[in-house]
Design goal:
This protein is mainly α. It is 60% helix and 0% strand. It has one domain. The radius of gyration is 19 Å and the shape is globular. It contains 14 helices and no strands.
C-alpha cells in the first residue's frame, strides 16, 4: 500500500531547518563579495551586473533545492500535492478551514506595515544597529541595483530578460518557494506559535550579502510571514514581495530604453 505524505506529516527539526537555511544563505555572500568580483575582473562585464547574475544563480539554486525537497517528501508528486504542501492555494480560515478570496483584503494592512518599515528610513535605522557590535561590516560594498543607472546600458535589452528572470526567482520560484513554501509550513514543531517570527528572521538573516539591512528585514518580513501562516497561503508573501518587481522592471526599462537620460 502506498503511503501518501502531506504537510501534516512530521515537522522539520531545528537541525534540518538550519541546514536548509545554511545551504542557501552561505553561498550568497561568497558569490557577491568574492567569486563574482573575481570573475568580473577577468571579463568585460560590469562588476555589479556580474554580481546580479550570480545572485540569480543563487536563487535558482533555491528552486532546485526546493524541488528536490518536495520530491523527497511527497510520494504522490502531483501538482495538487505540491500546492497543498507549499500552501499555494486560496486563504483559509485558521479555525474552520473555509477558503475565501475575501481574506486577501488583509493584504492592505500587511502592505501598510511593510511600507512603513521598508519604504522609509526605518529599515536603514534598524539595519544599521548591526554596526554597533560589527562595525567592520560597513566596509563591505553596498549591492544596490540603482547603481546600474548608467548610459553604458542604453540599448542593452538583454538586461530586461535578466530583470524578468530575477523577479521570477526572487519573488516566487526562489526565495518565496523556499522560505514561505518549504520552510514555513514545517517550522511550527520547533517554534510553535512563533514560527512566523522565526521564519521572518531566517529570511532576513539569509541576506548575508546585504548585512547592514538584515535586521530591518526581520521586522519588515513579518508582513509577509504572518498572513501567510495565519491563512495558510503563500500568496500573501508572493504578492507583497512581488510588488518590489515594479520599480525594478520600470527602472531597468528606463535605463536600457534611454528614457532615464532624456
Amino acid at each position: 500500500m502506498t503511503t501518501h505524505k502531506s504537510h501534516k506529516d512530521d515537522q522539520y527539526s531545528l537541525r534540518k531547518i538550519l541546514s536548509i537555511w545554511a545551504a542557501v544563505a552561505i553561498p550568497m555572500p561568497l558569490m557577491a563579495f568574492w567569486i563574482a568580483p573575481a570573475v568580473a575582473a577577468k571579463t568585460t562585464f560590469n562588476p555589479l551586473v556580474m554580481i546580479w547574475l550570480f545572485m540569480i544563480a543563487g536563487m535558482i539554486w533555491q528552486f532546485i533545492l526546493s524541488a528536490w525537497l518536495l520530491y523527497r517528501e511527497l510520494d504522490t508528486f502531483t501538482w495538487a500535492a505540491i500546492c497543498e504542501r507549499i500552501w499555494l492555494k486560496k486563504p483559509s480560515h485558521p479555525q474552520t478551514g473555509k477558503t475565501r478570496y475575501a481574506y486577501f483584503w488583509w493584504l492592505i494592512p500587511a502592505f501598510a506595515f511593510y511600507a512603513v518599515i521598508e519604504m522609509t528610513p526605518v529599515v536603514d535605522i534598524i539595519g544599521r544597529l548591526i554596526l554597533i557590535p560589527l562595525p567592520m561590516l560597513e566596509r563591505l560594498p553596498d549591492l544596490d541595483l540603482a547603481d546600474l543607472m548608467s548610459e553604458e546600458f542604453v540599448g542593452q535589452w538583454w538586461l530586461m530578460v535578466v530583470a524578468v528572470v530575477s523577479c521570477i526567482f526572487n519573488y516566487f520560484l526562489g526565495e518565496e518557494l523556499l522560505f514561505r513554501g518549504i520552510l514555513l509550513p514545517k517550522m511550527q514543531g520547533v517554534f510553535g506559535k512563533w514560527d512566523w517570527v522565526a521564519n521572518s528572521a531566517l529570511f532576513a538573516l539569509y541576506h548575508l550579502h546585504r548585512p547592514v539591512q538584515m535586521l530591518g528585514f526581520i521586522v519588515g518580513g513579518l508582513a509577509w510571514s504572518l498572513p501567510s501562516r495565519h491563512f495558510r497561503s503563500i500568496w500573501f508573501a508572493v504578492i507583497l514581495h512581488a510588488l518590489e518587481a515594479i520599480p525594478l522592471l520600470v527602472g531597468v526599462f528606463a535605463v536600457v530604453s534611454g528614457l532615464a537620460f532624456r
